[in-house]
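Late entry, evening session. Most of the bench is empty. Finally got around to the prediction I had been postponing all week. Sequence below, unchanged from the version circulated by S.P.
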Amino acid sequence: MDVLRPTLIRIGGRVYRKNLIQEQAYQHEEEEEDFCAVAPGDCTDEPCDAFVVEETEKGFQCRVEVPSPLYKYIIGKKGETKKKLETETRTSISIPKPGVEGEIVITGQHRSGVISARTRIDVLLDSFRKKQPFTHFLSFALNQPTIQEKFLQFKEEVLEKCSKDHGVSSSLFQNPAKLHLTLGTLVLLNEQEIQKACDLLQRCKEDFVNQIAGGKPLTVVVAGVEYMNDDPAMMDVLYAKVHMKDGSDRLQVIADQLVERFVASGLMLREWDRVKLHATVMNTLFRKDPSAEERNNTPTGKSSFKERESFNGRNILKLFENFYFGEVQLDSVRLSQRFSSDASGYYATSGQLTFS
């Protein structure tokens, strides 16, 4: 990062400059980040309405709900981050024990110091939350028996006709019980955040989904295949296309508005201007990990495209460009849990929005 042009991030209407402090890594993190406010002025110099600061007999205090997996980023290596925050803001920061869900409590003699500490904690949490692998995703299930049967036919025919093409093997194919459309991914780190996402789904149902869907399932056609990258001879992902049987854009509108609401709530990060409705049928990530899921075709964690062996999909596109997977009735949006399975083989559902 150019120290003369540091990264600027916006949180709660404020702009912060992100400074990197080179330190020895702790618990899988390669660097610790420090932040200081820039325009429009320092939060210690003006009132902050984004959170509540209570006056006490000894001064002021502020409480912030933080999922327990994020405590370590406020504590830092050997408590250094916490000590630095306390020293520079002249506050005391109380953090629950590891694994115990609760609130971080900031206390101090001066309101400005408490506000400063809370603001810096918010910035730290925002940064480190973005580094967490996603835990849940909003999905439409496409694993109805007729679709699974046609998918298995597709797999059999591809292997029969294209197995000699570079990289093509049975390990590339999606588990038919987990066929789905991904709308967006979420990082939900405790039961409270999962419940917040479930509650938002229900509000979306009342606010706009009922009107768009008309209280009935959406009939969707799954037909044709497309690929993600530029060169069909070097494919990483092949997906089935979907469209409404009646030719309307209702499915797209519901998907886009759901993502818009979840992004606005802070539960989801925006990745694209519009949701790309696609059902992954082949993915090179599956070669090493059959339970892997793509984050809208963006690898997460330590994996990278360098570790993925692409496959030659030219013949697959030529022979199966218009392959018909069937019709499906979409009757719900699910809050699906990553790396999980229910009795049907689909992802475990933490909550759902039903159309009827």
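Two things to note before I forget:
Confidence is low (pLDDT under 50) at residues 21-48, 296-305.
Residues 154 and 323 are 8 Å apart (CA to CA).
Will write this up properly tomorrow.
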